Amino acid sequence: MTTKKQRIALLVSLALLGGGMLGFGFGADRDYTYQYEGEVAETPETVPPLYSELSESSQDAVDRALDGEVLQFEDSKTLPGLVERDGTYHAFAFETNIDYADPTTIVPMVTLVLGLVGVIATVRWEVTSRYVTY
InterPro entries annotated for this entry (predicted)? Predict the structure, then answer.
């Protein structure tokens, strides 16, 4: 039989666990990278945008990526994954990475770990109080 303290400890631990999961899902800091992958040999199924049709900022990002630079952004950008330039198709990778060093990511992770440890400790407390007699 569980005691009132054990039930409260379990509920608090589950709240920490759920809050950590929600906080990590919605609040984790994401960084974005854009880099050149290479030329595409065959003609793609969908027609990619022409380099000349891109905005000036997109052209700058494509030029820098073609020069071998890996571009990093704090917010999501709409950059093309495939561009036709001078009759050649160029492929680019736009990836999302979680920044684990940012405080908006660390706090939910710590909350999640505390909730998990709390659930394990509460279950262990309940099991030992049921089967171990002093």
Answer: DUF7979 (IPR058285)
User: Which residues of the chain form beta strands (DSSP E)?
Assistant: 30-40, 71-73, 82-85, 88-98
**Torsion angle, alpha carbons of 11, 16, 19, 21, to 10:** -110
Q: What pLDDT does residue 1 have?
A: 65
Neighbours of 13 (CB within 10 A): 20
- Residue carrying the six token digits 């900022």: 57
User: pTM of the prediction?
Assistant: 0.66
Residue identified by tokens 């495939």 is 82
Which whole number is the average pLDDT over 28-55? 86
Tell me which residue has tokens 């509920």: 11
The single-letter code of the amino acid at 25 is G
> Residue for token digits 């950008």?
77
